[in-house]
Specification:
287 residues; alpha/beta; TIM Barrel; four-stranded mixed β-sheet; 9 strands; globular
Length: 287
């Protein structure tokens, strides 16, 4: 049975505009040899150089909040852009250090990625994030404990629901709130073409048709849309126009609450205070 969420001010659904500001880490983490390939790295450089400023310009025009998930390496090496995000009033969340996919067989590396990323964000821009998204949505069974021990409010790594829910650890402690997402509402499958991983390049019309229909039903179900985007993808000229058109489409409907991931997670906790969490059915539960 799908559990219902009561959104603030009687809203019918919630929408988060979230951006994974990977910059060059998306390519360095896949293959360290890419450090010798400025052509490959320039894909990620575009996200910092052009994508982020254009996205911030759009968000300012639309008067909307957003959440930027930032690897620690990006905070250290693209500091001015991260500061620009903060100056515009948006949320900064954690996205690892070098965008390495967490490997369950390498717990020490998982821990290092998490803590090194935290330290980099704190040292460079003075941010102690309350939210985390694992690179490529990959995570480990131990990650929830690490996030809980470090006081994270929410995680946004799983694809197993259409509304937020709160994890419960094996020892019974409440874990972070999960903000689910899905590949169909992530720009990467449509926009990330590379020589090593060639993909068809989708037209704006193709992407919009999927996003519009998904949003329409999410709103009808009273659910949550976590729109996942990347400055090196959605930051291209025609794709910025795509995002602007999609925002205009969503605004044609009443009862749409645009909020940061932190606001959604906190609203979920506030409205569930004193209530029992629905039955846990997620990838961390042994079956």
């Amino acid at each position: 049975m799908i559990h219902n969420v009561t959104w603030p001010d009687g809203a019918k659904c919630a929408v988060s505009l979230s951006f994974d500001f990977d910059s060059e880490t998306n390519w360095i983490s896949r293959d360290p040899e890419n450090l010798k390939r400025p052509g490959t790295l320039s894909y990620g450089t575009y996200g910092a150089k052009v994508g982020v400023p254009r996205i911030l310009e759009l968000l300012k025009d639309e008067g909307l909040p957003a959440t930027f998930f930032v690897p620690g390496w990006v905070a250290e090496n693209r500091t001015q852009r991260v500061e620009m995000i903060l100056e515009h009033g948006h949320e900064i969340a954690h996205h690892g250090y070098l965008h390495k996919w967490p490997d369950p067989d390498k717990p020490d590396e998982v821990l290092e990625e998490l803590d090194r990323g935290l330290e980099a964000l704190k040292k460079t821009v003075g941010v102690r994030p309350v939210g985390y998204r694992s690179p490529a949505g990959e995570t480990t069974m131990d990650q929830l404990r690490l996030l809980t021990d470090r006081g994270f409010l929410y995680d946004s790594s799983l694809l197993d629901d259409i509304v937020p829910y709160q994890h419960v650890l094996e020892d019974g402690r409440p874990g972070p709130v999960e903000l689910p997402w899905h590949w169909s509402t992530d720009d990467a499958p449509y926009l990330f073409f590379t020589i090593s991983v060639p993909r068809p390049m989708a037209t704006n019309e193709h992407i919009l048709s999927i996003w519009k229909e998904e949003f329409r039903e999410i709103r009808r179900w009273g659910a949550y849309l976590d729109l996942v985007m990347h400055p090196q993808g959605i930051g291209r000229p025609s794709r910025i126009a795509l995002l602007r058109e999609f925002i205009a489409f969503m605004r044609e409907f009443d009862g749409v609450w645009f909020a940061t991931c932190e606001q959604v997670a906190q609203a979920y906790l506030d409205q569930r205070e004193g209530e029992a969490e629905p039955e846990a059915i997620n990838p961390f539960i042994k079956v």
